[in-house]
Write a structure and sequence with these properties.
By secondary structure, this protein is α+β, with helices and mostly antiparallel strands. The chain is 35% helix and 14% strand. Helix 3 crosses helix 6 (141-152) and helix 4 crosses helix 5. The protein binds FE2/S2 (inorganic) cluster (2 copies). One FE2/S2 (inorganic) cluster (FES) is lined by residues 99-105, 136-138, 140.
Length: 153
């Protein structure tokens, strides 16, 4: 049986959604709201592909329930740009060519936004720690680290 509608704040807009108890925020974002920027990788919180910001912290949406996200500020990668103007982190990733297949990119961008919000001038160890949950099968970690440093500047 479907539970009562849940009120979510996604990218600045209020969305009234229906979700089975315990269903994942990632499924709701992708399948019901059409926000496919957060990717499905492992489904177990172990690859970093699905990260979104919840109350300005980067979290894996695949293991976050819709109920847990209710009433909180959810920002997906789609919510970062202002119209045609990319977020500085997105711009830095573009300028450093810090993407290849793109599977990990939105998660890396979200993690970087959260990092710089709390640590505006991270050293390399702090960057590596923040990005540690994010796996890149294309192996472009060097370019990603350069992009984070560029965004911090
Ligand atoms: S799909 Fe969520 S961490 Fe891998
Ligand atoms: S760019 Fe392909 S997985 Fe990271």
């Amino acid at each position: 049986m479907m539970a009562a509608p849940i009120r979510l704040n996604v990218n600045g807009a209020t969305r009234l959604v229906e979700a089975a108890p315990g269903s994942s925020l990632l499924s709701l974002l992708r399948d019901d709201l059409g926000l496919t920027g957060a990717h499905y990788g492992c489904g177990h919180g172990a690859c970093g592909a699905c990260y979104v910001l919840i109350d300005r912290r980067a979290v894996p949406a695949c293991v976050t329930s819709v109920e847990h996200a209710a009433g909180k500020e959810i920002v997906t990668v789609e919510g970062l740009a202002q119209g045609d103007v990319l977020h500085p982190v997105q711009q830095a990733f573009l300028e450093e060519d810090a993407m290849q297949c793109g599977a990990c990119t939105s998660g890396m961008v979200i993690a970087t936004v959260a990092l710089l919000e709390h640590t505006p001038h991270p050293d390399e160890d702090e960057i590596r720690a923040a990005l540690a949950p994010h796996l890149c099968r294309c192996g472009i970690y060097g370019r990603v680290i350069r992009a984070v440093k560029r965004a911090a500047r």
